[in-house]
Amino acid sequence: MNASRFWSLLLMVSCCLRAHPAGAGEPESTAWAIPSEKSSFHVFLLMGQSNMAGYGGVPANDPYLPGDQDPVPGVLMLTGQGTVDDAKLASPVEWQPAAHPLHRGQPTNQFGLGMDFAKAYRAMHPGITVGLIPCAWGGAGIDRLGKGTPIFANAVARLKVAQEKGVIKGVLWHQGESDSVNPELAAAYDGKLRNLIADTRSAVGDPNLPFIIGNLAEFYGTHPDHAKRLDLIDQIRATLKSVATRVPGCAFVPSTGLADSQGKGVHFNRASLITLGRRYALAYAQTAPVIVQRPAGYKLVWSDEFDGEKLNTTKWRFPSYKEREAATVNDEGTVTVADGMLKLNAFVTGEKLHAAIIQTNGKFERTYGWFEARMKMHRLQGLHSCFWVQTPTFNQFPNNPAQSGTEMDIMEWFGSGRRSGWAGMNIYYRDEKGSVRSPSIPQFQLMGRPIEGDPQSPLGDMSAEFHIYAMHWKAEAVSFYCDGVEIMRDTEAISNVNQYIVLSLLSSNWERPRLRLNQLPDSLVVDYVRVYAP
Prior knowledge:
disordered N terminus, alpha+beta, 7-stranded mixed β-sheet
């Protein structure tokens, strides 16, 4: 899987969850109804060992919180899981409203990742009911999970039941701790996992069934009990990532930045399982993304292909100010056009940081449309680049985004900024106190979660290649896309006034100390900007 595409999804599941709360507005009578159309009932198998079964909420320092065990509207679970040694279906075998714990009748059956995966998946697929088949078992090595075992036979029997009402859409896999205990198990793990994937796909009848593979916890191996097998733990980690990369239809879920539940270096805590569930949803989106094209009937109303030798000032203008927080803007050399590309450049002379911002106010403004740009982001921590639209009336009508307009960030990228790989799509407006409000992300600090961490973050390195970022702005909703995949949709703060386009590569005061001046220059590269409308 191309790691940088994994952003697309979020990149921003937290945005989706706030814009589309799971089950919001659903009447009690239909909240857990099985859809009449099988295509609207998406079913997933939860396979693996204790971290898939769930260990959050077990220790006293990591308890359930109020509401954790409430059923989630639109999410069902299939009962009937057998025991580790018995394939017999446990009675009853039926769809029930899903709630923690999903895996019942075993020690590690508490708060798991499945529920938050389902919430995130529903946020990304409005109108879909999600079914979960709990198949994991705490402490089970892969030899107890594959074809020919009671656990696998029980899972297959229940997926056949599920296929009567719904469509099996994928497998969530988190396992490998028990196979890191000796060299023979670790060496055989690659082949066994690939066989299990093939056997599961065969049982479902779908050779391309998405199989989402989670990494072992990064803290796994830090406990003194693990000291003698650190190499084996790393070997399993490498195998999980390798299989996810080599086997078509698989995706890898990193465990960067997640925390232990009870200090034994094995199990994720409650908060980390929430993040991990969302990451699984992001990874799943990369296995079969729904590619959105600009709407039929829309025509090009404005564009810049950057075919000249300098910026076209009939289309763009520079703002009147020369200083913007930590940088001097738009000095000579900060904005260049060559070889069909626009570059906004950041560089330093002495201690003076130079950056760039250009905009179309007074040249081109409009209400509604499809706004699109193909760009490659800058690379350095301490800078942020953005493709956005703004309005001259942004501050005039507090708490009235329809009349004042909004700031719409089609893509804002922080390089290795606040956390590695931060990116965001967002909408802002002003309240009566002059503070920035966002309906989809109440706190700006949440932007980009859950992608914190090192270069293995789900976003990958967005400065490594070009992507197409787009926004579809309509009277009833604003949707944001990367490479045709919808990342976020908002229906609350919709601007009904003319807005103009802005491209920028800047540094804020809080970012400047992180910028390594000896690594400059850096650039935001733009292939084109286009606007379409009916």
